[in-house]
Write a structure and sequence with these properties.
The chain has 238 residues and is α/β, with parallel strands linked by helices. Helices cover 36% and strands 22% of the residues. The chain has nine helices and nine strands. Strands 1, 2, 3, 4, 5, 6, 7, 8 and 9 form a nine-stranded mixed β-sheet that branches. The radius of gyration is 17 Å and the shape is globular. The termini are far apart.
Length: 238
């Protein structure tokens, strides 16, 4: 049997799609794996739906109520596996996602990012390859300038937990933070396998193509660089 896998899923009012997503994740997991769901105070049927699945691999923890970054941080902090996969609440995992990513971890990489198909709320493909559409790929400067570490397509070694947690309050997103730190401390790989159906709809927490005003973009990049330097300096000093 392979090493234990953890999936960190952040949920909030996800009743519409979460059953299909959770079932697709569980189909990829073995007996000793876990799906850690940090729920940030859902007011719909999200928790009821999760509870109805009655699977011992599902572990629900109370979210901090401070937004998506801190909700993912909470999920990651509660993961006990050797490898951690990030998951949104509304996508669909393809069969073989975990096993495919694990092969690359065996080669010594820190972070694996795979391709995906973008689908609409009915499951129809709207973008056949997000990797090509977005230009996903490694490179610290590249990903500071334009983030291509897409959380729902990411997995990383749990050894990175002590480096990436806590996620700074003044950076834009957790996935960019994890990806860049993982790359600086080792190697990241972007693979062509399309391992999820990435669902885009009106209720998503993020948008595929969203640009802040110029001054906000400059501030966000500065905050990211400053926090990365502080975090790595602190870890070296420790």
């Amino acid at each position: 049997m392979r090493e234990k896998i953890s999936v960190a899923l952040a949920s909030y009012n996800g009743e519409k799609y979460i059953k299909e997503q959770v079932e697709s994740i569980l189909a990829n997991l073995q007996e000793g794996d876990e799906l850690v769901i940090s729920d940030d105070g859902s007011r719909d049927r999200t928790l009821e739906i999760i509870g109805s699945l009655s699977d011992p691999r599902i572990k629900v923890v109370k979210g901090p109520g401070r937004g998506i970054k801190k909700n993912f941080e909470n999920a990651i902090a509660n993961c006990g596996g050797k490898y951690i996969f990030l998951s949104d609440q509304d996508d669909i995992w393809e069969k073989g996602k975990v096993d495919t990513c694990i092969r690359y971890f065996a080669e010594g990489v820190n972070v694996v990012v795979h391709d995906c198909r973008v689908v609409d709320d009915e499951g129809n493909t709207v973008i056949p390859s997000f990797k090509e559409f977005r230009g996903l790929g490694p490179g610290v400067i590249k990903n500071i300038w334009k983030n291509t570490y897409i959380g729902c397509c990411m997995a990383f070694r749990a050894d990175l937990k002590d480096t990436v947690i806590p996620v700074p309050n003044n950076i834009e997103m957790h996935d960019q933070w994890i990806g860049i730190l993982g790359e600086l401390k080792g190697k990241s790989i972007f693979i062509d396998d399309k391992l999820i159906r990435y669902r885009r709809h009106g209720d998503n927490a993020s948008e595929i193509a969203h640009h802040h005003p110029v001054m906000v973009m400059i501030r966000n990049r500065w905050n990211l660089v400053w926090n990365v330097l502080k975090r790595l300096s602190f870890k070296v000093a420790s």
